[in-house]
Amino acid sequence: MFETLPEPKLDGIIALMQAFADDPRMGKIDLGVGVYRDEAGRTPVMAAVKAAETRIVETQESKTYLSLAGDGAFLEVMRDLILGGAVPSARVAAVGTPGGTAAVRQICELIRMARPEATVWVSAQTWPNHGPLIEAAGLPMRRYRYLDVEAGALDRAGMMEDLAEVPKGDVVLLHGCCHNPTGVDLSLQDWAELGALLERRGAVPFVDMAYQGFGEGLDADAGGLRHLAARMPEMLVAGSCSKNFGLYRERVGIAMAIVPEGQRARLAGTLAGLNRKVFAFPPDHGGRVVSTILNDPALRQMWQTELEEMRLRVANNRRGLAEALREATGSDRFGFIAGQQGMFSILPLSPEQIESLRAEHGIYMLGDGRVNMAGLNEASLPVLAQAMADVI
Ligand code: LMR
Prior knowledge:
Helix content: 40-55%
Structural class: alpha/beta
Oligomer: single chain
Number of domains: 2
Strand content: 5-15%
CATH topology of the largest domain: Aspartate Aminotransferase, domain 2
Low-confidence stretches: none
Strand order of the largest sheet: 2-10-9-8-7-3-4
Bound molecules: (2S)-2-hydroxybutanedioic acid
CATH architecture of the largest domain: 3-Layer(aba) Sandwich
CATH superfamily of the largest domain: Type I PLP-dependent aspartate aminotransferase-like (Major domain)
């Protein structure tokens, strides 16, 4: 039965995680997978999460099934955290999913059910798993220009030109904030122009929100998404609590469809039905941690303070790397790193340079030059800068 099965191709991020783990060298530097790390290189359980977990363990009386959509309290707090009241709740159909990844996949399944011929447009540089998820749902995909690689900035004209061709009923995938892998975000003005364009074209925006709180702050990071939600008749949103709650392996995500009021119940039922066909009930523990935190003013404050510390550390690493590269290379070529947002930037390096950094210096980054800024600390910043100066 399985003889003809092709050899599996490991996702670049997962392959790099494995290669890093297998490297015996001391002093190796992991800038691969998008996981927050503190100055000591740890990814600790957040204190607010620990406190919420303790409370749940002490008070939970049953683990019997909930609904296919998951816990209502989780869906409500996440809807508010992401949408911030930009649309009436009567327009939002939502279900819990095992992480943001499954939210993206379930939304693709929903698109396929509703409109199998819809093409999903993704930015030329995007999270390496977006393509496979869209493809696995059987949807056609096209790319729009996004990054001006040399400038480390948005190719605004290219993006708008490509998206001006999107036919009615197609779907445009956008990153809510902290664009993965480029770190290049849209300004509020860009979001507004994009909204007007998508409206004119009759296209449906699909926003992947995986890093809320890591850019400019919780509300500022959702500004563009909320603008679109308020103006578009239909919109899709995938949300993740992996990074901003540090709940990575607990798999906590939400899939939302924003639709005209009369369609909400049908969409909610359809999304719940899609859950039933893959995993039935979404995992509960992580989502309960999130609702416990967000519904308790003291825990919420504790969480926000911790998240803000993480955000500032990443921003500080950005400035530190830009400065270290200025010193090591004597040029301003990498100054863009300081102005970008979130965990990632793409370093304009050739595949050979990326390979020498790994082979000669034990520095691991993705094949397209994506680095996780949270993987750096005061000691490794100058090491990376010097190694880059060496290979350039
Ligand atoms: C990443 O982009 O590294 C993270 O989102 C982790 C993942 O699942 O790929």
